[in-house]
Amino acid sequence: MDFVKMHGLGNDFVIVNALHSPNLERTDWEEVAVRLCDRHYGIGADGLIVIFPSEKADIRWRILNADGSEAEMCGNGIRCVARYVYERGIVPKGRVEVETLAGIIVPEIIFEDGEIKGIRVDMGVPRLERSQIPMSGPQGKVIQEELAVDEQTFSVTAVSMGNPHCLIFVDDIEKAPVTTVGPKVEKHSAFPQKTNVEFVQVLNASEVNMLVWERGVGPTLACGTGACATAVGSILNGYTGRQVKVHLAGGTLLIEWNESNNRVYMTGPAVEVFRGVYPL
After folding, report:
1. Could you tell me the pTM of the whole model?
2. What is the secondary structure of 7-72 as a DSSP string?
3. Which CATH number fits domain 130-268: 3.30.750.24, 3.10.310.10, 2.60.40.1180, 3.40.50.410?
């Protein structure tokens, strides 16, 4: 099986083209993802992306986390896919429609002097109602709501960008309990489909720091949907304006929550690391 390794701000993926390989449709991708993503016995990645034909868009994808669970969406992964299909002539245009479990997502490649300088993604309208996240409890938005985690209580804001996110604002990102509290919130009973967990430090009206515990993966260097959720949550709480630079461990994403159409736009890089053949 041919593959390409790519990353967006250090959030890395193994990408497989199954457009012309019907036999790959029947592959147990959950089991394959666990093997491929293992950093000692496999290729090593945060997730596996498989590209299939689509009847609704230019392509369809499946994205599986390192533990084999399937994600609805991934901001860093979608940028990698956009660059992958453009550079190989699979979708020979700067605007790509990708069918995902979160709907059709549209990344657009940014060129400068004929070279790819980044990818801007229309991430759609954020989902703020509790039932859409999903999160248990009464109807309404979840903004600075108390959540009990063992003996501690945290004020959380919840946002869905096609997948669930729980934001915890902190005073010092260096002291954020990512690896201790993150996994407990991910599997908290309040989130029936589990959740991604973002720890956020507001720097000023246009910049925040963020660390993430990704659902089904653990701590990663970046999370695109998490950055979008972080920007939306920061705006909802009155901490920032509508354009936010989200600084992650692997780099910075520019997030805009457009007031006129209510859609969120994410701009950032996508990089190819290497290509290879895996003995499937």
Report:
1. 0.92
2. EETTEEEEEEE-TT-GGGGGS-HHHHHHHHH-TTTS---SEEEEEE--SSSSEEEEEEETTSPEES
3. 3.10.310.10
